[in-house]
User: What shape does this take?
Amino acid sequence: MYPLDNPPPTNPTIDLLLSTIGEKRPQADLTMVRLAYEFAETAHGGQIRKSGEPYIIHPLCTAITLAEMNLDPNIVIAGLLHDVPEDTSVTIEEIEKNFGKDVAHLVAGVTKLGKIKYRGIERYIENLRKMFVAMAEDIRVVIIKFADRLHNLHTLEHLAPKKQYRVALETLEIFAPIANRLGMGEMKGQLEDLSFKYVYPKEYAWVRGLVEEHYEQREAYINEIKTAIDLELQKEHVVVHSVHGRLKRLYSLYQKLLKHDKNIEKINDLIALRIIVTDLADCYAVLGIIHKLWRPLPGRIKDYIAQPKPNGYQSLHTTVFCDHGTVVEFQIRDMQQHLNAEYGIAAHWSYDEEGGVRPDRQLKWVSDLAIEGDTIQRLKDLDNLKIDIFQNRIFIFTPKGDVMDLPENATPVDFAFAVHSQIGNQCAGARVNDRIVSLDQPLKSGDVVEIIVDKSKKGPSADWIGFVKTTHAKQLIKQHAKRTLADWIKMALPSRGK
Ligand code: MN
Assistant: This one.
């Protein structure tokens, strides 16, 4: 089978779900999971999906996906029950009575997100807004929604073409970018590839054909390289968890092809070699070993461990010249970084059982976006917001070493407002890496920025609107301009009443 296909289990059963959980969490109490399955099965009763399967197959597959991500049993249980309030006569209250507050809260969240339909830009804004609000309330709801969508995409062939297109387009436009922003690489990749087929069928066929044509030859070559590196790692006594080839996903390959004259020969990472080590320090040791064997391509060594991507991705990347002038990309990371790269934010809920840290279910940047998402009314606002979330991000440091995550080309004024609205209001100048710069100078990742504050300053300059990049800064500047005007009118009008 083509290595990217990742179909849902055929004939899934409750036993498969239980064994998936049991494998990852031998201590887990499976009684509630079994009860939730029986509860959902009874509630959905004789319902049949468009595919002709009993309805319960859908929530079951959703729950299996969540269990594979090693999420805690409450999330899996909510996955089993996610369509019950929407599609049956059973209420959230009954779910709460049987499975507790937390599960009921998750199911209610998924129900609130509702059955999203992509119908032009207004719906798009509405849906995006709903997603942000849900994310701000509890990220776990969005993760269940992803698993739900994944199974719907797997069974999309049974729907009418118009509906297929809508669901797939919405997945590409909303779900996949958000999954990416949450660092859920595996989820993002699957959502994209499953939708790609329906949104751009011709392009999909073309890319898939190209890969099938080149795959075997490159795979044989990658296997040679793998043997060479395995041997060298043994010689150097580096303990690795695994060395394996990873095939680039179709949609991301398609986007890369568009940037490279549609020429697959120019794509170096169609298959990359991924080395998972057991100890973080070994990442750098392995990098050294690779560079001793093969010469690295200049400018292609990327240390995402020291400087993670904005979505949290950590790895070392390098591209090297191997034999016969071929180039191969290596990705090196430890096991924890690997799980993070695959599951992103969802990986944080994997350790509850060992009593590990329970991270916030509310991320600050997500709640910021939710507030902004709530105010989007027009296409232009939406464009701004999309730039904030989906564009490349840069990291800027305060003189004390705190990190701010900003969109590309953000300026010292954006930075000032990101630190605090008061700093933005009184911003009078900026020092970047110890040199005074103009306030509209685009910042670069790694810059250390110090804002020079003028305490006598009453507010931001209206002309900053012309160059700031974040919606946050724009809104605060506008608000201030409005308020000044209102104050001015108030002052100018004779006081009434009193
Ligand atoms: Mn569903």
Q: What stands out?
A: The mean pLDDT is 84. Residues 58, 82-83, 148 surround manganese (II) ion (CB under 6 Å). The first strand starts at residue 240 and ends at 247.
